[in-house]
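ingest -> fold -> write
write: protein_1
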Amino acid sequence: MTAVNDAVIVAAGLGGRMLPTSAYLPKESLPLVDIPVMIHLIREAIHAGVSRIHIITSPIKDFSTFLDNKDDFYRLKPEISESLFSTHESVKFQVHIQHEPLGLGHAILQSLDSIDGPSLILLGDNIITDQFSSIRNFKPSTASKKLVAAFIETGIPCAGIYSVPKNQVSNYGAVELTDNKISQIVEKPDINEAPSNKVLCGRYVFSAEAKQLLTETYPVTQFGELQTIELQKHWMAGHGLHAVDLSEYQWYDSGNPLAWLKAQIDYGLRNSDYASELREWLDNRLV
């Protein structure tokens, strides 16, 4: 089965829900306690086995600081995991600019001229992790590795799904499952019309035909921001779209202020560097 050598991190959004912060700092650069979102995503993609990482950004964002080695900083604080200051030597990076905010499909398309084969897709404001390690021994999330393994096993495109409380399902693309395949996607449904409480969660593996489909069959001029939903429906009607359930992971969203505040607390309580003191402070604060 074809290996997945390319990962695409989509970080072109304007971040309107995170204003005024996002007017000064991209939401993908925000720290989850002490490690920026982008570092989590880059390390997750590398752990999944890719050899090239494509970052999709906008003209007003700059992620170059994440692509340069920070050996000087590592010497200043060598007890921190070196992987947090340097990129993997075997991994190549490319940056692609989405000059107009025309949705996810259009953003992904900016990288596909440089990709020959399937691609792992990660949304830049979503951390999905099963690791809560110290900065002294950082361990990347295994979420993308799980999707890549599913693609290699099944040979069909894959989408990560996640169980959310019923009262939150209207914020996402809710899915219906038949065995382990997605048979229906309803974008932001009313609570009582959602096919399930399983939703798309920002992790995909697209097959090599994605470029042709996004360019010719489901162009942004006709389908707008629903372009990728139509693409996934195309696969659902064909050989299938395999669902990879990531509900046992923790899902953190840096695109929403309250969700990001909750993420800081939750991650801090699970992190060995901060958990004890943070829990003691919270206990006293909430009395």
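write: protein_2
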Amino acid sequence: MSGADGLVKIPELRKRILFSLIMLAVYRIGIHVPTPGVDSAALQQVFLSLKNTSLGYWNLFTGGALERFSIFALGVMPYISSSIIFQLLTVVWPYLHDLQKEGDQGRKKITQYTRYGTVLLCLVQAYGIATGLESYKNPAVVLHGGMAFRLMTTVTLTAGTVFLMWVGEQISERGIGNGISLLIYAGIAARVPQGIGSTLSMYRSGELGLLKILLVGLVIVATFFSIIFVERGARRIPIQYAKRVVGRKIYGGQNTNLPLKVNTAGVIPPIFASSLIMFPATIGAVLQSKALEKLTSLLRPSEMLYNVLFVGLIFFFSFFYTAVTFKTDDVADNLKKYGGFIPGIRPGQPTAQYIDYVLSRLTLGGAVYISLICVLPSLFTELFKVPFYFGGTSVLILVGVALDTVAQVETFLLSRNYEGFMKHTRVKGRAAYS
């Protein structure tokens, strides 16, 4: 039976997909619910000047919620920032490091701390945005400023992000795919029709030539194919299992392989990097610091400092996240425990060192690939001044999350003895972000 039939005939899978779609619909409806006290028309004018800034980039990740100043204006970025902080702390803080080793109970405790951190970051960022909006006088964005507006905005935006965090967790648990990643995916994908409409409007008015449109289309297609090609690439390390005699039966003696993905970290590095670069903009609004305002002006996607920091953070998070999620010592110990070994490599620590050696070089290649995908399309569109709403980071997230979700559906189908979702190939996913 085909995988397409399985989508309809497996009740549990059908319920999971339907639940995910309902949650995403709730998210998209909430984006159109405005936060009280703001002049929407004036805010639209302000965002026209902020389109190429870090706040404009943040608006893309929230699916337009920030420019509407809806209850979901902060999106899930505070949760991602909090996750970054606690993942870094698990490396340097022994208490969290020990919690991580405790299995599910320890991870639940760290998740709880991450939620508390999310609320704290929301309070800071929401207050910063409220203060920043009050500073716009021509046109006046805030109808009635003051502490009452700031407190109401802070509580509203914090509650919105906490609700989104809950929605993401519900999708991960009761739906299909990774909830937080799907929320970001939905926000970016929702901008596709607007981007196409703007491009067509500029073409009709003569502001954009056919050659430029074809060139941009070619870049988009090339970027999509490059991402799909690399995301499915892997280095397969051969593994042999020694024969074991148990009673009258012989076990083992088979050959298999250990697949190491070129991009083990997936879409996490650009998401984490973007989250950190966006953070100074809201802190600057709270502190009213001229130094931070100057830094924020330099952290525009078109500025060299932004791209240098962005690439540096991508490299850092590529190696860091890979090291956190892929434990070479654990892999080597499991191979030794079950009688597996890499031909020519001794079991135990030498095996761990060899896997780490291969993985480090793959991660370096993956970091270079992510950097090129995220930076070059954005520089290209900035150079030709075209309304390309989806830079490399957005395209990488769209393709990466889609591949992960399809891979989960395939796994679900195969576990129920159905054919895969794709008839002639298998979509290999990666560890989802949580």
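write: annotation protein_2
The two ends are 33 Å apart (CA to CA).
The beta strands are 234-241, 244-246, 249-251, 255-261, 340-341.
pipeline exit 0
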